[in-house]
Predict the 3D structure of the following.
Amino acid sequence: QVQLRESGGGLVQAGGSLRLSCVFSGRAFSTYTMGWFRQAPGKNREFVSGISARRGTPYYSDSVKGRFAISRDNAKNTVTLQMNNLKPEDTAVYYCAAAGPVAVVVDAAEYDSWGQGTQVTVSS
């Protein structure tokens, strides 16, 4: 079965950067759509970014477009979220998730496997 593990969260000042990584344990990583979601206290889990299987087409929410960049390395079974120009409203627990190859990338319900999350805190 697929297992996911996130790392790279931490505390940064507004305007700073963090790089989140997700390691995929399982078979056929290149056939999975991968996504990043986040959840702040008292709020629903929301889509941040995703990347399609195989060809690696990226997708971003409007709130992070131009600041975040997603990538995947199919040889290393990893997906990365580079977060630049961080804002206090980016503060949340960030989750890595995996879905099938034809998943609707922005829909959390499409994802079958989830990591445990990593905390990102941005101070003003």
